[in-house]
Design a protein that fits this description.
Methylamine Dehydrogenase, Chain H, mainly beta, about 160 residues, globular, WD40 repeat domain-containing protein, single chain, WD40/YVTN_repeat-like_dom_sf, WD40_repeat_dom_sf, 4-stranded antiparallel sheet, WD40_rpt, WD repeat, 14 strands
Length: about 160
């Protein structure tokens, strides 16, 4: 499957970035070695890193643990990719391809995730099928707070 770029001025197709073997389910920008790259998560269980100007795929990372969400988060000056995996939030290091941090606390699947910038630090908020919203500081990997709601949560986002 391809990522397709469209011209905003004409609405015409500009180019396609081929690489994933199936649908792309999430995209975000991430800084890697002082370059801003486009990260894509595919149903083929890979994360691909793209140089947007040239269209080159500059890296492929294992994404077998990640499902349907991908966010860039800065932890102690280092850019990581955050995604969900069952009842976990995982942070992948795009430079090494390894899981750098695992955030554990939900008792059921994590269905939504967003990054919040608070006092100059990136925090993560996760919402789960366990009816909780958890706030995480990835630099100190434990849940900072937890709110329980009797209704199922389908989305967490910053306003």
């Amino acid at each position: 499957m391809a990522l397709v770029f469209w011209r905003s001025d004409t609405g015409e197709r500009d180019r396609a970035l081929d690489g994933h073997e199936s649908s792309v389910v999430a995209l975000c920008a991430v800084e890697v070695t002082e370059r801003v790259l486009l990260a894509s998560l595919g149903e083929d269980k890979t994360v691909r890193l793209w140089e947007p100007a040239s269209g080159w795929c500059v890296g492929t990372l294992p994404g077998e643990d990640l499902a349907f969400t991908l966010h860039a988060v800065t932890v102690e000056g280092h850019s990581l990719l955050a995604g969900t995996s069952s009842d976990l939030v995982r942070l992948l290091d795009p430079e090494t391809g390894r899981i750098a941090i695992t955030l554990q606390g939900h008792s059921d699947s994590v269905d939504s995730l967003c990054v919040l910038r608070v006092n100059g630090r990136d925090l993560l908020a996760s919402g789960g099928a366990d009816h909780t919203v958890r706030l995480w500081d990835p630099a100190a990997p434990r849940a900072q707070s937890c709110e329980r709601d009797p209704r199922p949560l389908s989305r967490v986002q910053q306003r």
